[in-house]
Amino acid sequence: MSLIKVPVLLFVLCFIASLFASHVEARIRHYKWEVKYEYKSPDCYKKLVIAINGRTPGPTILAEQGDTIVVELKNSLLTENVAIHWHGIRQIGTPWSDGTEGVSQCPILAGDTFTYKFVVDRPGTYLYHAHYGMQREAGLYGSIRVSVRKGVKEPFAYDEDRSIILNDWYHRSTYEQVARLSSRPFQWVGEPQSLLIQGRGSFNCSILSTPNLEAGACNMSNPECSPYVITVVPGKTYRLRISSLTSLSALNFEIEGHNMTVVEADGHNVEPFVIKNINIYSGETYSVIVKADQDPSRNYWAASNVVSRPLHPPTGLAIFNYYPNHPKKSPPTTPPTGPLWNDTGYRLAQSNAIKARQGYILPPPVTSDRVITLLNTQNEINGYRRWAVNNVSFTLPHTPYLVALKENLGHSFDQKPPPENYDAANYDIYQVQKNVNATSSNSIYRLKFNSTVDIILQNANTMNINNSETHPWHLHGHDFWVLGYGIGKFDPINDPKKYNLVNPIMKNTVAVHPFGWTALRFVADNPGVWAFHCHIEAHFYMGMGVVFAEGVEKVGKLPSSIMGCGATKGH
Ligand SMILES: *[C@@H]1O[C@H](CO)[C@@H](O)[C@H](O)[C@H]1NC(C)=O
Ligand SMILES: *[C@@H]1O[C@H](CO)[C@@H](O)[C@H](O)[C@H]1NC(C)=O
Ligand SMILES: *[C@@H]1O[C@H](CO)[C@@H](O)[C@H](O)[C@H]1NC(C)=O
Ligand SMILES: *[C@@H]1O[C@H](CO)[C@@H](O)[C@H](O)[C@H]1NC(C)=O
Ligand SMILES: *[C@@H]1O[C@H](CO)[C@@H](O)[C@H](O)[C@H]1NC(C)=O
Ligand SMILES: *[C@@H]1O[C@H](CO)[C@@H](O)[C@H](O)[C@H]1NC(C)=O
Ligand SMILES: *[C@@H]1O[C@H](CO)[C@@H](O)[C@H](O)[C@H]1NC(C)=O
Ligand SMILES: *[C@@H]1O[C@H](CO)[C@@H](O)[C@H](O)[C@H]1NC(C)=O
Ligand SMILES: [Cu+2]
């Protein structure tokens, strides 16, 4: 009980202090969240979603650089555990608050309250979402918006600031998805039923066969699924913080008739460039500047479309509403359908265009101490369909690595390190491989503290002929420099010569394009244990991830609240 009250007290003290001090350096922002299953109709189809304080997306965390966020999370799912990850927050000094079940903590048991406490040390656009099983796609997600310190000027100007989360949406429950993905023979979960913009989409109920549907279970007049409205005042300039938390889909977002200037990516200032539409992969965040400078007598569509997959749900729609037009008035035009789904060159070019902004460049170390090449493949292991990285399909341990390593809890996970490379000389990335001998393992990479590590993500053919997917990889606990992208097999002699060491953008999530490679560099200077994985929820669930441990001996005393499972019982 006292554990919970301390932050409240601190908050009160801090608030009182702020009445007397003219410039308070940092504040504590306290949130009380209850996570609960509720019936919602985000795309007009009623299903059980995981809501925070009755909402999906959950409440937006608004903070200033340097603030401490305290989230007191009550798990009211009744029969299900939970964990929430703070996506893009590096958790410097608080690796136990990363919220990654199996890596940084035990799951929060049904009925329990758990307190996350961490500092938002940099301004920018971040996210939070469930990191347990496949709960994210049940609706447990939201935005974190960290503003610059008072008096600090950003290198771009705008009148208003808006956050929009893009998502895809399945009608099947996460339980059905997990059961299908874990079944033999494999049952793919299929494409999502709709695309959501800020938690709202529109499923065409009349295509359902209705005999088993209760009255009103799919109701296109339900106000919960009326399109999201972005109201703008003619002549004003807007910063739109656009992020994606799709389960599966790569998206392209566009505001009809309006160009956008990209200025931020994953919390880093971007050398501005103008685009008509933006490709955004799950786990990425961008800020774009949009001017309300078009004919103000009408509304415009804001549209999200799936790219990189041949089959997809209909365009996701929101209304870009010019005040004082009626916010619900449909634009008189056909919504944008986005670029060709298979135009990899277009997406690659846009990825390459994202550079660090002049004046805000933190140059990468010019060399690295270690290069780890990660080839992703689809495999069958004992008849189960899995994703693997260098022939190892990742599984989460029962004892969180952070506790296992810090408390020396014996061999609670596979101690044999995973491979640093694959058989690059003989592996044809364009061929369907049998790959029958992949193994499942929870082994991890141990990084020398403060060493510089290069990661080469290498994409390949799936188990279908002539097919390679886009995978957005997300790193916990760090930002990395994006040194380069390419199509084909990475050439370890010549490609590093083309690395951008001048103004590479730093990100926490990056795509590896179909049949392509992506090269990253980061410094292993954040004591803790950090997941690095494909942000497609089904792919991570099927083994597409790795884990890095660094400087664990430097981690402070672990809170007992993260323990209670596996070998940590009784700790
Ligand atoms: C919904 O589906 C029905 C039946 O296929 C079709 O006639 C109708 O045009 C669709 N409505 C929309 C808004 O797409
Ligand atoms: C559909 O929703 C509208 C608006 O809330 C409501 O008036 C109507 O009764 C609902 N239809 C059914 C069948 O529940
Ligand atoms: C968008 O940018 C393109 C290329 O710079 C330009 O040709 C076009 O006129 C711009 N459109 C608007 C609406 O500003
Ligand atoms: C992309 O797909 C379209 C059909 O959706 C097809 O006509 C076209 O040839 C494809 N382009 C490439 C480069 O594969
Ligand atoms: C995985 O192992 C199989 C069997 O040993 C081998 O043929 C294949 O090349 C390996 N794949 C990778 C990606 O290393
Ligand atoms: C897979 O492993 C088994 C047992 O080690 C071996 O007999 C078989 O040749 C391997 N298959 C491939 C394709 O490497
Ligand atoms: C990390 O490495 C950098 C560059 O080599 C060095 O300046 C710094 O002192 C090191 N920090 C620690 C904590 O070892
Ligand atoms: C696969 O791609 C190759 C090369 O682009 C092409 O020759 C072949 O016909 C394709 N096969 C199928 C089944 O599409
Ligand atoms: Cu993936």
Small molecules (ligands, ions, cofactors) in the structure: 2-acetamido-2-deoxy-beta-D-glucopyranose, copper (II) ion
CATH superfamily of the largest domain: Cupredoxins -  blue copper proteins
Question: What oligomerization state is this entry in?
Answer: single chain
Strands ordered across the widest β-sheet: 10-9-12-17-14-15
> Any idea what the CATH architecture of the largest domain is?
Sandwich
CATH class of the largest domain: Mainly Beta
Number of helices: 5
Helix content: under 10%
C-alpha Rg (nearest Å): 23 Å
Mean pLDDT: 94
Write the topology of this structure.
Blueprint: H1 2-20, E1 28-40, E2 47-52, E3 61-64, E4 68-75, E5 84-87, E6 113-119, E7 124-130, E8 141-147, E9 160-169, H2 174-181, E10 194-197, E11 229-232, E12 237-244, E13 250-255, E14 260-265, E15 268-275, E16 277-280, E17 285-291, E18 300-307, E19 316-322, H3 344-353, E20 370-381, E21 384-389, E22 392-394, H4 401-406, E23 439-441, E24 445-447, E25 452-458, E26 471-475, E27 480-487, E28 506-507, E29 509-512, E30 516-523, E31 528-534, H5 537-541, E32 545-550
The structure holds 2-acetamido-2-deoxy-beta-D-glucopyranose (NAG) (8 copies) and copper (II) ion (CU).
The site of one 2-acetamido-2-deoxy-beta-D-glucopyranose has 2 residues, from loops.
Subunit structure: Dimer.
Family: Belongs to the multicopper oxidase family.
Pfam family, one: Cu-oxidase
